[in-house]
From TrEMBL:
Superkingdom of the organism of origin: Bacteria
Tagged with keyword Lipoprotein: no
Source organism: Cupriavidus necator
Pfam families: HTH_1 (PF00126), LysR_substrate (PF03466)
PROSITE patterns per record: HTH_LYSR (PS50931)
Record InterPro entries: HTH-type_LysR_regulators, LysR_HTH_N, LysR_subst-bd, WH-like_DNA-bd_sf, WH_DNA-bd_sf
Protein name: LysR family transcriptional regulator
């Protein structure tokens, strides 16, 4: 035995050696322990010997017929069995948490999509895959993007002009932009209008519709007209301004028709080709779990159809 005066340290203990010792105590045999561990008998013997050297005590009393723990061996085996059992329980919990995370997909989406398209899609998906959990977070556009970038959501579902830095975009659908006006507006009595007919009226947009504003600015410039629209951050504010008769606006078809009321009219601008892209975004360098990949593929397959059914 090693007679070094240094006190034994936990840092010097080897878990494999400790587990091997426990199997020898349980089986009362080096050979049976070797079989349980799928090791050679000399390997088992060497592990126990190294453990004894580190602890500077004899742990096992070897006889011709069996192996019995010494007093120190009994003390160590009882303490080690409790420790190993606790470690196994902790590892089991870690495994359960990891499995739960693998089967959980957090989806961040803008309010309109969270209230209309996604609930039915999530229901259909979880009916097909009951072991998977889809968590839907209803967030403003900016927070949808930020939650994906910061890893708080696995997937973001929204309408986008471009792809924000650090994200990967997958197209799900594209919709024509429709004109929305107050029900008592001079243009409300017809189903179609031209851009020239919009020139006298005040326009207001959601502030994230940069591409549409640039497109209309160019069209107004061609007609020698000023273009100075107002912007707002949220859809409820925009709709409130329309209902108050303060402006006209453009919205994607599903959004316009889903928010149709007697106080509003929806029209098509015949000489404007403007659309809005819907898509899913994930982190650019993220290693997507199988659950995230499968749900994203499901969205790509079914999102457009569900969106079209909002009429």
């Amino acid at each position: 035995m090693n007679k070094s005066p240094d006190r034994p340290s936990l840092a010097r203990l080897d878990l494999a050696e400790l587990e091997t010792f426990l199997w020898v105590v349980r089986e009362r045999s080096f050979s049976l322990a070797a079989q349980k561990l799928h090791l050679s008998q000399p390997a088992v013997t060497n592990r126990v010997r190294r453990l004894e050297d580190k602890l500077r005590v004899r742990l096992l009393q070897r006889t011709t017929r069996s192996v019995e723990p010494t007093e120190e061996g009994v003390l160590l085996s009882e303490a080690a069995e409790q420790a190993v059992a606790g470690l196994r329980e902790a590892l089991k919990r870690f495994s359960a948490v990891s499995e739960g995370e693998r089967n959980r997909v957090v989806v961040a989406a803008t309010p309109m999509l969270s209230a209309t398209v996604l609930p039915r899609l999530i229901h259909a998906y979880t009916e097909r895959y009951p072991d998977l959990q889809i968590v839907l977070r209803d967030l403003p556009y900016e927070r949808v993007i930020r939650s994906v970038v910061e890893g708080q959501a696995d997937i973001g579902v929204t309408a986008l002009d471009g792809t924000p830095r650090g994200l990967r975009f997958q197209s799900l659908a594209e919709e024509k932009m429709l004109l929305v006006v107050p029900a008592k507006h001079p243009l409300a009595g017809t189903k179609t209008v031209t851009l020239d007919q919009l020139l006298p009226y005040r326009l207001m947009f959601l502030d994230r519709y940069d591409t549409l504003r640039k497109q209309l600015a160019e069209e107004f410039r061609k007609r020698g007209a000023d273009f100075d629209p107002a912007t707002v951050a949220t859809l409820p504010t925009l709709l409130g301004m329309i209902d108050a008769g303060q402006c006209i606006t453009f919205l994607p078809r599903s959004m316009a028709q889903n928010n149709a009321r007697r106080t509003r009219a929806t029209l098509t601008v015949t000489d404007l080709e403007a659309s809005r892209r819907y898509g899913s975004v994930v982190q650019q360098k993220a290693e997507l779990s199988a659950a995230v990949q499968n749900f994203r593929a499901f969205l790509r397959q079914h999102f457009r159809t569900e969106l079209e059914q909002l009429d």
